[in-house]
Write a structure and sequence with these properties.
With 374 residues, this protein is of the alpha+beta class. The chain has 13 helices and eight strands. The strands form two sheets. Strands 1, 2, 3 and 4 form a four-stranded antiparallel beta sheet that branches. Strand 7 and strand 8 form a beta hairpin. Helix 5 packs across helix 8 and helix 8 runs antiparallel to helix 10. It is globular. The N terminus is likely disordered.
């Protein structure tokens, strides 16, 4: 194939010791519908594709130290089948055509980014920095002392204590939020602080990714009038080796939202009841806590949904659950062809997410009723 490295002659094929380029990324196994897949990505070109467990078994062992014969023996022990030279030629041709093999032609350069400003006045994006990964790396270096596990644990305990106190004062916070809606100047101040908290949420994802070995692709501003929000695109954290690192990246935004509230919580607690400033702070604390905690709900596109997918090693959890439930209603025999784990996960998520939506709708209706009757 064009762009493929020269293949060894068939006679010496099994003695060949090919290797993937060291920067090629391989993911952990992910459940995708009834199948288990692994993601393969070339971080230079940005191209990615999926392979099955058997292909992953072979590709992950192409390290330059083992011959194809050695890998074939391991494969035969694992799967009870020995590969022929035609299978190897097909696999090497695929990897070569995608320029993933060491010693072959270099991968194509990534396409240049588009213009920093794209879209219209009503809807668009604005890229704010030329090198988002370098910018996030500088921010990570500045914040590194705060990212020590002991410091993070202390901050997390502080956030949990704050939320416990706020839960006990929910009546005051709700009354203050209702009052805020009728006060234009304090309302604008709180809205500005909430917008800043949203920006910190996005930067926190990027800093957490840098801390555990991920990369950041883009930082910018996205708007759909009348709303304009910051965004930070994290690359490659699907390929982090440790599940807890993936969870940390996904949870970092909500954690940053709670950290942002801590100084305002201290200010609120120090003020006497009836102080007008305490009212404004109470509304900010309720809205800010809701912003953080709602993000942890396991429904798309929220961070809690991403965390659940990482925790369960599942990709496309919501659409796969929906597809399984529709199949289950139409053809129970076909649905039973899914692996037992897939059946449990998709049925559980389908029922659980439906119940959660109903619960949230009931809670929202209750909150509206409370606001209208008090």
């Amino acid at each position: 194939m064009t762009g493929s490295p020269p293949a060894p002659s068939p006679a010496g094929l099994l003695g060949h010791r090919p290797a993937l380029r060291p920067e090629v990324l391989l993911s952990a196994p992910l459940l995708d519908g009834p199948a288990t897949v692994h993601l393969v990505k070339d971080p230079v070109s940005g191209a990615s594709f999926e392979i099955g467990p058997k292909e992953f078994f072979l590709v992950s062992r192409l390290d330059g130290s083992r011959s194809l014969a050695d890998i074939g023996t391991e494969y035969a022990h694992a799967f009870g089948k020995r590969l022929g030279e035609g299978n190897w030629q097909q696999l090497l041709a695929l990897l070569g055509s995608r320029r993933l093999l060491a010693g072959g032609p270099p991968p194509p350069a990534p396409a240049p980014r588009g213009r920093p400003l794209e879209g219209t006045l009503a809807r668009g994006t604005l890229r704010l920095v030329a090198d988002a990964d370098a910018t996030t790396a500088r921010l990570h270096r500045a914040l590194r002392p705060l990212l020590h596990p002991a410091v993070l644990a202390a901050l997390l305990l502080g956030c949990l204590a704050m939320e416990a106190v706020l839960a006990a004062s929910l009546g005051e916070l709700a009354d203050a939020s209702g009052w805020l809606l009728l006060q234009p100047a304090p309302l604008m101040a709180v809205a500005t602080l909430m917008w800043l908290s949203t920006a910190l949420h996005e930067f926190a994802h990027g800093v957490a990714a840098r801390h555990v070995g991920g990369t950041v692709g883009e930082i910018g501003l996205r708007w759909r009038l009348p709303v304009a929000l910051m965004y930070c695109t994290v690359d490659n954290y699907r390929f982090l080796a440790r599940r807890r690192h993936q969870l940390a990246v996904a949870a970092a935004g909500a954690f940053a939202n709670l950290l942002f509230l801590l100084p305002f919580f201290g200010w609120w607690a120090a003020l006497p009841e009836g102080d007008p400033t305490r009212r404004v702070l109470a509304a900010l604390l309720l809205l800010g806590s809701a912003q953080a905690l709602v993000n942890l709900i396991p429904l798309p596109p929220l961070d809690g949904y991403t965390m659940l997918g990482h925790g369960l090693r599942v990709t496309r959890l919501a659409p796969a659950s929906s597809g399984y439930l529709r199949l289950r209603m139409r053809d129970r025999a076909a649905a039973r062809a899914y692996p037992p784990r897939a059946r449990r996960l998709y049925l559980g998520y389908g029922i659980g997410s439906a119940a959660l939506v109903l619960l949230l709708a009931a809670g929202l209706a209750g909150a509206v009723w409370y606001a209208l009757t008090t």
